[in-house]
Amino acid sequence: MKKSITISYIFLLLLTIISGIISGTINKNISFIILLLSALKFIGVSFYFMDLKKAHTFWKSIIIGYAIALIIIVLMI
Amino acid sequence: MKQEPINYSNIYYPPGGILMWIIISLELITFGMAIIAMVYSGKQEPDLFHQSRMLLNPIYGIINTILLLTSGFCMAISVHYLRINIPQKSKILLLVTMLFGMLFLLVKTFEYNEKISLGFDINHNLFFTFYWLLTLFHVIHVIVGLVILGSVYFGLRNKKTTIEDVEASASFWHMCDLIWLFIFPIIYLFF
């Protein structure tokens, strides 16, 4: 378990640094990519740090659904 | 310390407890609506939001994200050690968690001081109104989280805190991470 938390931590740090680097580039899809990386970090923290991967499907669905819904709404506006 | 195995796959017992998850859900909905309102306002005045966003230093945001993630990592390991009955290591990691939380507040203080000295207060424009409201509400949650973790630490020292209390407190602390993970890109990178 400690190993999975450590791996996810390194992964989260990498995603944060990648977000910072690509935010300076000019690309029409950059907003989508930044939000997608944030959603991945969001799911990583909830599943591995908060141990939600052991929880009932209902709670996992709520978190994944929230991240997807927020991205879709923000991109649709 | 009394430790009973919990079946987390039961819908009524998510890690941290169902009451904490109800709070987390409400907080995420509230911050989500504020983020949507900010993006909507940003689409009405794209130039203003872009120019204002360029006045922020994303390095502060990246450092704060790393500090919160490191703090969350230490918290998760602390709970792990408590579950396998190594409370000594758990307590040390709880202190490290709080240390990174305080470093987050320190960086935020520097950033706020810089913004105020440049005149970018809450009334400067609509972007900065959202900036101050979203980040200050988040900071309040971090301060509340630190108070909860402090009480859990002393509870662990006096052997009065159960693992369920620690898990619930950890869930609240991780919620601060979750909120920040969407506030950071929207405020510092999106516009």
Automatic annotation (TrEMBL), chain A:
Domain of life: Bacteria
Keyword Nucleus: no
Pfam family, one: COX4_pro
Membrane topology summary: Multi-pass membrane protein
Main location: membrane
Any GO CC annotation of this UniProt entry: plasma membrane
Organism expressing this protein natively: Aquimarina atlantica
Listed transmembrane segments: 7-26, 32-50, 57-76
Organism lineage string: Bacteria, Pseudomonadati, Bacteroidota, Flavobacteriia, Flavobacteriales
UniProt entry keywords in alphabetical sequence: Cell membrane, Membrane, Transmembrane, Transmembrane helix
InterPro entries reported for this sequence: Cyt_c_oxidase_su4_prok
Name of this protein: Cytochrome C oxidase subunit IV
Localization per Swiss-Prot or TrEMBL: Cell membrane
From TrEMBL, chain B:
Highest rank taxon of the organism: Bacteria
A GO cellular component annotation in the UniProt record: plasma membrane
GO molecular function terms listed in the Swiss-Prot or TrEMBL record: cytochrome-c oxidase activity
Protein name (Swiss-Prot/TrEMBL): Nitric oxide reductase
Domain Heme-copper oxidase subunit III family profile: 20-191
Protein location: Cell membrane; Membrane
Membrane topology note: Multi-pass membrane protein
Regions crossing the membrane: 12-39, 59-80, 92-110, 130-156, 168-190
Family: Belongs to the cytochrome c oxidase subunit 3 family.
SUPFAM superfamilies on file: Cytochrome c oxidase subunit III-like
Biological process per Gene Ontology, one example term: aerobic electron transport chain
InterPro entries according to UniProt: Cyt_c/ubiquinol_Oxase_su3 (IPR024791), Cyt_c_oxidase-like_su3 (IPR000298), Cyt_c_oxidase_su3-like_sf (IPR035973), Cyt_c_oxidase_su3_a-hlx (IPR013833)
Entry keywords, A to Z: Membrane, Transmembrane, Transmembrane helix
